[in-house]
Design goal:
308 residues, mainly beta, Immunoglobulin-like, 3 domains, 1 helix, 24 strands
């Protein structure tokens, strides 16, 4: 009897996950090209961000310049990234062709979308002559170190290099010739900031930014939604996004393949909005897990895979 009950629970969760994935996941695809000559980009990745600045999906750029993302119903910003290699000849660029997030064009994902092409800005930093060094600093948002801010080094209107902040806000831009630069820090849902610096062999660190978070103008969602966690598969951290259209109590629970509760991530009153919750599965073993959202009579379940 117990075995049959467990089997029923597992089948229930799997079917719920399949139904939800089919109902909410859409493809978003296109090519990545250089803005100056329309030639295709042959390496790198494209990341989709929600309008709070969290990465919700990522895809590699193929040798033919193609990418494809899978997303649930939402509004997103896209950024095309080069691989972090000295020979890369472009800088992170948002859809359709801008570096400043304030100039990005938001994409409403309400069905499959094709031909969403990104036109990236060139970097002039490849094989530049002169004595080279590394520039570094920390990026804060409202006095808190922030991850995934992009700091660009410019000379005039040319982009020479860039760095991306880590979990502690630290960033570095390598292989920069000594000289004068404009440093510009960008992060979605934050006001941008810039400073002028004179980079020497001896003075190359301490170039810090303190960005100010801003209202991103997101309208309250009109429906409940539970997104596919990102990344998936994962080890050990992943982010679960969900939206609620009105005030009420929300629970978000994690179950193993046997239907046993292993973690309750959320049990609290929510205002209408979009939420991102990080789940750490460091204490769990590899396998299939399910996460379930319950809110005001709405229930949705998705499957995720932990690989250690």
């Amino acid at each position: 009897m117990k075995t049959a009950l467990k089997l029923f629970v597992v089948v229930f969760f799997i079917l719920a996950a399949v139904r939800l994935t089919e109902a909410q996941n859409y493809s978003l695809s296109g090519k990545v090209r250089y803005a100056d000559n329309n030639e295709i980009v042959t390496s790198g990745s494209v990341k989709a961000y929600d309008l709070n600045g969290s990465v919700i999906s990522e895809a590699n750029i193929s040798s033919e310049g193609d990418y494809i993302l899978w997303l649930h119903y939402t509004e997103v910003d896209l950024i095309g990234f080069p691989n972090i290699e000295p020979e890369e000849d472009y800088v992170p660029t948002g859809y359709p062709d801008k570096v400043d997030p304030a100039l990005f064009t938001h994409i409403s994902v309400n069905g499959n979308k094709n031909h969403v092409d990104i036109f990236v800005q060139r970097s002039s930093g490849v094989m530049r002559p002169g004595v080279q060094t590394t520039l570094s600093g920390i990026v804060f948002s409202d006095n808190v170190p922030v991850k995934d801010a992009i700091v660009y080094a410019k000379q005039g209107n040319e982009y020479v290099g860039f760095g991306i902040s880590d979990n502690n806000g630290n960033y570095s831009i390598k292989n920069l010739p000594v000289g004068d630069y404009i440093l510009v820090a960008h992060k979605i849902a934050n006001e941008s900031s810039q400073i002028n610096v004179s980079l020497t062999e001896n003075q190359r660190g301490g170039y810090n930014f303190n960005l100010k978070s801003k209202s991103n103008g997101i309208n309250n969602p009109y429906e409940f939604a539970l997104a596919q966690n990102y990344p998936n598969p994962f080890n050990p951290n992943t982010v679960i996004s969900y939206s609620v259209p009105n005030e009420g109590n929300v629970t978000l629970k994690i179950f193993n393949a046997a239907g046993q509760l292993v973690s309750e991530l959320v049990n609290a009153e929510h205002q209408a909005g979009v939420y991102n919750i990080e789940f750490n599965a460091g204490s769990l073993s590899s396998g299939v897990y399910f996460y379930r959202l319950d809110a005001n009579g709405f229930t949705a379940t998705n499957k995720m895979i932990l690989v250690k």
